[in-house]
Specification:
Structural class: alpha+beta
Number of helices: 1
Shape: flat
CATH topology: Ubiquitin-like (UB roll)
CATH class: Alpha Beta
Radius of gyration: 20 Å
CATH architecture: Roll
Bound molecules: zinc ion
Number of strands: 4
Distance between the termini: 58 Å
Length: about 110
């Protein structure tokens, strides 16, 4: 069994957002608490490959909420990784406004 994806044979569920059929999978999520980043793995979810949305059932949401509300203090992390943090400061190249630009260009 792959650690990334755990397919099961539950009946297919339609995506509440786009209506496509979702698949059962085991996912992970990253949660920022103040200045700390926490990653939670082994989350059973319904995943929509069409709009990339992920949905958790009530019990899963409850477990995730408990863990978050306790500041991740109730469980020992299964592992820790070093996370490189990048900045876009000084990396964004703005084009000069032109007549062909769309809604995202500021007008003066
Ligand atoms: Zn969808």
């Amino acid at each position: 069994m792959s650690p990334e994806t755990n397919e099961t044979n539950l009946s297919p569920v339609a995506c509440p957002r786009c209506g496509e059929t979702m698949r059962s999978a085991t996912v992970r999520t990253a949660i920022w608490r103040d200045e700390s980043l926490f990653v939670v793995e082994d989350i059973p979810a319904q995943v929509c490959d069409s709009c990339m949305e992920q949905f958790y059932d009530e019990e899963t949401s409850d477990a995730l909420r408990r863990l978050t509300e306790e500041g991740f203090s109730s469980l020992r992390p299964k592992k820790e990784v070093l996370v490189p943090i990048f900045s876009l400061q000084g990396q964004i190249v703005r084009r000069a406004p032109s007549a062909e630009d769309g809604a995202f260009t500021e007008r003066y």
